[in-house]
Amino acid sequence: MPELPEVETIKRDLFKRILNHKIRLVEIRDKKIVKSNNFVKKLIGNEIKGIERRGKLLIFVLKNKEYLLVHLKMTGQLMFKAKNKSGNVIGGHSLTKMEDNFSEKFTRVVIDFGVGKLFFNDMRRFGYMKIVGEEEKEKIITKDFGIEPLTPDFTWDKFNKLFNKRTTSIKAFLLNQKIIAGLGNIYADEACFCAGIKPDRQVNNINLEEIKKLFKCIPKILQLAIKNRGTTFNSFVDGDGQKGSHFNFLKVYGRHKEKCKRCSEKIKKIRLVGRGTHFCPGCQK
Ligand SMILES: [Zn+2]
Where is each FPG-type domain found (predicted)? Predict the structure, then answer.
């Protein structure tokens, strides 16, 4: 699943491509993805005036003051393909024949901006697109999302308070979008490694020193991943369809049975909150 760094990478890429271009055509190939009525009608003739992100949710600010919300969930991709002078999407576009690394097999929605097309691909079809007004957008971003790690809202006071009286595992805590927004399986494991905390520890048993480490680790890990344009494990591609390069920087995630880069013990993988969870038995207590 694309997490905060991957969604942020897509946001930055698309910003350069689709801002201020009038939407010419919208093609819905799979109705399951689109969660609002009059979707096509509302988008045609409209323009995207800004792109925001809340956790893993992309928020496209429309010219008419409505918002297009896009969540990629498990396998969603949002890819922009520019058109050449003759109006074809670069890569020999014919809607069936595209360049090698791009297939329209799982394309669910296509938005044509004149200068190029934005493809929403989603193999598993858990992602969605939805148009909402100001009030509903505010409700969603305040009710469904906790503190946002790379913003001024992520303060020590607020972070420290989150740990009060919670009895879940730290892994479940970090994955809960209503507590901290944007971490998924990869960066939750990496944050625990960075702070030296075993992912199955109970939140209320984590001491102040460890909470302080976690507070520093979370933004540090996310920023480095953004710098590397995200991690491609299965299906993530950026707004241009390219893979992220953060994979080689991961310390525990996806490294089961490999040697820890810090202490040389073998990385372990366990099942926690239904997710494959990686940690180093040497570095994490
Ligand atoms: Zn280690």
Answer: 251-285
